[in-house]
Protein 1
Amino acid sequence: MDKLQAMRIFMEVVERGGFARAAGHLGIAPAVVTRNVASLEKRLGTPLLVRTTRRLTLTERGEIYLKRVKTILAEVADAESSVGSAAAMVVGTLRIAVTAVYGLYVLPALLSRFKEQYPQVQFDILLTDDPVDFIASGCDVYLALAENVTGVDVVVRKFGSAETILCATPSYLARSPRLDGIDDLRSHQRITVKRSRLWNDTWQLAGPNGELIDFSMEPAISCNTTAMVYQCVLNGLGIGRLPALLAKDVIETGNMRQVLGAYRCADADLVITYPGRFYLTSKARVFIDFILANAPV
């Protein structure tokens, strides 16, 4: 039995919450996972896990052993990364969850640059604007709005802020009532993201004199993703709040306009998060550092 491999498998079983999930994440057969854990328990002379049909829990000795295993594997990873080419050590599939707009319009360019440095890394990308369960999804990292991050055992690192602006197309504005102030919005078609505290059907704005305004009315269209709001606005269906990073190129072409520019929308923090209690792979570690250093916002 390869002791280090068995340790890695044992840790994955615990952190992924089951033998099948660990096997899927590691790309090996479930029987191999079962055999390695059983061999560990036999060699140690004590059960490490309590298995039932619905859940998997650590025994008291299993908890002690897991802590030592994490330390050992982290030290092994550090030793390996200190020898030879760093890029050559970064291999395998990195599973990335990312908020839809950032994933569609910003992340691909970053991945292209990352691949130049680490050509042996492959990507498995999940677009979502919902909170991510790292165990259920098998994701290594999540690039998200800070408010979409849940869980007590995750590491959250801010890499930027998303400025948001109110936008509409010239064709929509030409056929709609005048729009000089906030109250005029009630005569317009409003397109919103109906999901959470910040990006929901209430627009939080700061007025020209710094006054705070919570504007709310029944939306003409509500969506669960900002990417859909963008497409609706672009097709002249109404006024929506969009990330400036996404809207600015279309505004420059004249196909979209910022409206009510004297009223500043609330910004949203962009964060990269990962499960703090998991063993952080070398590919995840270098990707996190890359995003923190190179993300455009």
Note: The mean pLDDT is 85.
Protein 2
Amino acid sequence: MRSAAKAVTIRDIALASGVGVTTVSRALNNSPGIAPETRARVLAEATRLNYQPNMYAKSLRAADARTVAVVVKGPSNPFFQLLYDDLEQLLRGNDCTVSLFRASHDADEFAQAREICSRYQPAAVLFLGGGVAGKAAPSLPVPSVVATAPAWPTNDTVSVRIDDRRAVADVVDHLVAMGHEHIALLSTDENPGTVGGIRRSAFVERMAHYGLHVPSQHIVTAPLKHRPYSFDYGYQLGKACTEQAASCTAVVGSSDVLALGAMRALHDQGISCPDDIAITGFDGLDVARCTIPTLTTIDQPVQAIAASCVSNLTGLIAGRKVPKETTLRGSLRLGESTAKPPRVRR
């Protein structure tokens, strides 16, 4: 993956040399029609500033008009790795060239995309993840699609994602039907514009539907010592769960990696799943089928998400109108990690 790190540009050289950008470009490319002393001054400033010609940018500009920049927000999330594989295959099948960039969990992925557009001039941008709702961001100069998260309301970006609220409701319905009333949520983010924030509010709303109050301590968070949506952070949340939500008989993970990390932390503290506590995840990762116990989770329709993203993106590149929001349905996949609470079994 490539990071759009700040680098010396020909604009910097132009400013230092006191000439225009076109003159700098001609000097660096040894083009005719430039005075020798001007060329020497430009080259001297380029050397002083440690300018490195960006061969990757040149290759992108020389490529066909169907280069797609994929910006992954939270590249440690294994779900995005799974989704990217399908996206790349479909994009290449549509004669698109794919270039992958990463944005850290605390980065402004839209600002990074603007820089990518300026430096590399892709035909379109595809975002994987991010917290976009509520950001007052202007439109990019190229078509853009965001996968698994809401679209920016202030620009032309379109979104493809599952109905997170319905999926969370399915999980809560399943646990309540088993007899659970004290249920905790492993949460990563309070921001209502992020996927984590949407799942958090959906959890509280669905619990209220059954007349079940969610105390603040049952929204389990922890200082972010690890990357969010990682096994390490899930383990950290699992340890916090025994302190914040000791009375709970079930735990809902905002993702599979959080649920699996928490499951291990609880196991290390002598707490058995599902005998002592039921645990659910979200995403439908293959690894959730291989754990003991297997994880009850929400299957995200990866192939359908990828197909809708590529269909919308290629449509936008071709100038066609596409829906602002495409919402798909996740499905509850039952595993061995959920059972009736101990008081009901007795």
Note: Residues 1-49 form a domain with the 434 Repressor (Amino-terminal Domain) fold (CATH 1.10.260.40).
